[in-house]
Amino acid sequence: MFVGVHELRSAVLASSAGDQGCRGYGMRKGERYRKACRGCIISHNIAVLHLIIVKKGDNEIEGLTDKQIPRRLGPKRASKIRKLFALSKDDDVRKYVIRREIPAKSEDKKPKSKAPKIQRLVTPISLQRKRHRLAVKKARQVKAKENAAEYQKLIAQRKKESREKKAEKLSQRKSQRSSRAED
C-alpha cells in the first residue's frame, strides 16, 4: 500500500530512484519507470492486512494482546545461548540448549525431544583442526623460505660461473692478442 495514493484500486506511478518499492541500483540518473502499486485506502477487495500495534489502549485486544505466546524455538548459536542464560565461558552450552518435546505417536513408544545443532561451538576437535590448519600454514611458509634461499644460492652460483667464464674468455683473448703482438 503506497502512502499518498488515494485510490481504492492499484494505480500506475512513474517511480524514480529513492521511491518506495523502486529499485535504486542499475538505473540512470533521472530515470523513472512505471510501477503498479496499491492505493492507501482500504477497500472491500483486500482480504488480509499486515499491521503492527504502535500504541496500546486501555483495554486488551481479544486474541492478540490478552495472552502471551512463548517462542517456539530457542537460540541456536552458542554465544546467544550463553547470553540468554548468562553463562560463563567455562559452562557447557550443550546442557542449556532449549529442547522441543514431541509427543509419542502411539502409547507403547516414548515421547521424543528435538534440539538444534549448536553452531559456533568450540570443541576439542574444532581446536585441533584450527591447530592443524595453522601448522600447515607455518610449514608452507618455512618450505617457501627454504626454497627461496636455495634458489638464491643457485642464482649466485650461476652468476659466479658466468663471471668466471667471461673472465676466462677475456684472459684468453688478451693472451692471444699479446702472442700476436710478439710475432
Average per-residue pLDDT, rounded, comes to: 91
- The percentage of residues in β strands lies in 5-15%
Separation of the first and last Cα atoms = 111 Å
> Which overall shape is indicated by the principal axes computed on the Cα atoms?
elongated
Strand order of the largest sheet: 1-2
Largest sheet: 2 strands, antiparallel
Low-confidence stretches: none
> What's the Cα radius of gyration?
39 Å
> Given the structure, what is the number of helices?
2
Helix content: 25-40%
Number of DSSP E strands: 4
Structural class: alpha+beta
Elements, N to C (H/E): EEHEEH
Topology:
Blueprint: E1 10-16, E2 32-38, H1 78-85, E3 100-102, E4 112-114, H2 124-182
Antiparallel strand pairs: 1-2, 3-4
